Each structure stands twice: as structure tokens, then as C-alpha cells.
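From the pipeline queue, job 12 of 40. The input is one protein chain; the requested action is below.

Action: predict structure.
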Amino acid sequence: MNIYRQYFFWGSSTIILTFVFTYLIQALVYYKIAEKAGLDNKWIAFIPILQFVIFFHVIDRSALYILFGLISFIPIVGPLVLFVLGIYWKVMFYRTFGLDNLLIILAVVIPFVDFIVELYIAFSDSVQYQDTNRFQVYK
């Protein structure tokens, strides 16, 4: 019985560490994207739900758009509406950085490609923020 506990501990620890590592990478990506977009309060990227504030500010939308997540509680229709809105917002997000249409389609359709594209946006010098928004800080 003791050996089963040991395997369960190491297996669950690995899963937790993987989630923490992935979260930290995503937070760093949103921090760098907020930096490129000239947003204030970049530290928000490290707070789980507030990461969406940076996302919505990049596409020049209010942070109150986070409340659209409550639509998902409406049976059947809610998750579908939120799915369509999510795709629309992601396309707007990628267009503010001037990405190619094929890359946008791949990123929206394949979730892992989305993660790679966001890494590319955050750390590539060739990708620049090509829009203005009311949340930018001018120095």
C-alpha cells in the first residue's frame, strides 16, 4: 500500500509543477505583451484572473468585459456565445500585432499553436504593437 502512495505523490506533484511552470510562462508572456503595448500596471499579468485585463486593454476594450464570462452560466447558449466572442477577441488581439491571417487561423483553431504564437509576440523583436488604445501610458 505504501508504494501506491509514493507513486500518487510523485505523479500529482509533477502535474502541479507543470501547471505552475506553464502559468509562470503565460504570466511572463502577458507582462511582455503589456510592455510592448505601452500599458501601465504590467504586474497585473501575474494575478490569475486579472490577466484578462491586459488582454482586453490591448484590444482597446474595458476590463469589465471580463464579466462576459458570466454568460457561460446560461445553459447551452451561454458557452456557445462565449466561445464565439473568445474567437472574435483573439482575432482582434492578433491583428493589433499585425500577424498574418494564416497564423491567426492556426492560432485560433489549435490551442497549442496559440501558446506558441503568444510567446512569439512577446519575445520577438520583429513583432510590434500596431494599434493605439486609451489605456496606453505616454512617457
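Job complete. Residues 2-123 form one domain.
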